[in-house]
Amino acid sequence: MVVAALALVGLFVSTYLYLYKLGVLGSLSCAVGSCETVNTSKWAMLLGQPIALWGIGFYVAALALAIVGTGAQYEHDRRVSMALAFLSGWGVLFSAWLTYLELAVIHAICMWCVISACLVIAIFVLSVLDARSAEHDGNDRNDRVRQSTTE
Question: How buried is 32 (Cβ within 10 angstroms: 0-12 exposed, 13-18 middle, 19+ buried)?
Fold first, then answer.
């Protein structure tokens, strides 16, 4: 549920940035950094779409996986956690690339982009920890089944 909440916050951040990119919002509220410089740079687009739209897609996928993972049938199943770890791992790498561009190329930082990067890192860490926990739970359950069949 924590991952789902983080993904929901990320979805709100990405949607806010996307609405700015569409021109729905006149300016970005940015207490720290230069969000408009970053979001109007040529690096704010990927394959003809705003980076914020890609962020929306990422957070929707993360939210969906996190919600699926809360189901009883997936309580001890590692697959959802592994999928979330893989997805968020790509998100961490992509966020690192975007942060590099902000610092080394654009020479401006977007507070919202930093918040998004922190959310992606938190989702990644939690999903890896959950996958490891599910692996250990599965091993314990397999050991109990083996022990009961040998008795």
Answer: exposed
